[in-house]
Design brief:
Length: 193
């Protein structure tokens, strides 16, 4: 059995090639992985989150970004670049044009092809970011959000499932109700036995 040759590229090579690429790629320690396209439902939900944040945060140090701004992480042994669905940056010194290193809030809208990555790999990676206060995992199949927020004891997890349930981002001055996030969203009918 032959070993497969894997060509590793530098973060700088990745960033340059990503500027010219027609499709988005995430960077995982020297390897580049193409991202699959998102459904309309996924786009509607991410767009709703972005619009709500943009209208509620206002003119302050915090700013939301949708889809195309990467999050850059460095560990002791490697570097990573991810494309979250929505990210909020509040650090005025985090001023790279293409990525954030100190995000405050990250949203990932689950897709069947990315759910395991969002719940495992990205969860662990994002929790290592010192500036990150909130990681929000959003279902597109039903009204359900898992909200991980940093507290003095570590990370607290809340499951939100009712229209009146709310994400409270007090540091950024924004509250998002599930009814607002999912407004106009039709969910697939449940399979009946």
């Amino acid at each position: 059995m032959e070993a497969e040759n894997v060509v590793l590229i530098s973060p700088e090579e990745y960033l340059e090639s990503e500027k010219e690429s027609e499709i988005k790629h995430e960077y995982l320690g020297g390897t580049v992985h193409a991202m699959s396209g998102a459904s309309k439902q996924h786009n509607r939900i991410a767009g709703s989150i972005y619009r709500l944040l943009a209208s509620k945060i206002g003119a302050g140090p915090c700013e939301p970004f949708i889809g195309d701004v990467k999050v850059h992480l460095k560990t002791a042994i490697s570097e990573f670049f991810y494309y979250p669905d929505v990210v909020v940056g509040c650090d005025p010194e985090d001023n790279n044009e293409y990525y954030l290193e100190n995000p405050a809030i990250i949203f990932e809208v689950l897709s069947p092809s990315t759910e395991n990555i969002d719940r495992r790999e990205k969860l662990l990676a994002y929790q290592s970011i010192e500036s990150l206060e909130h990681y929000v995992i959003v279902s597109q199949e039903k009204m359900e959000i898992e909200w991980l927020h940093r507290s003095g004891e570590g990370w607290k997890v809340s499951k939100l499932i009712r229209p009146a349930d709310a994400l409270e981002f007090s540091e950024q001055g924004a509250t998002l109700l599930l009814s607002e996030i999912y407004e106009g969203i039709d969910f697939p009918a449940e399979n009946e036995g």
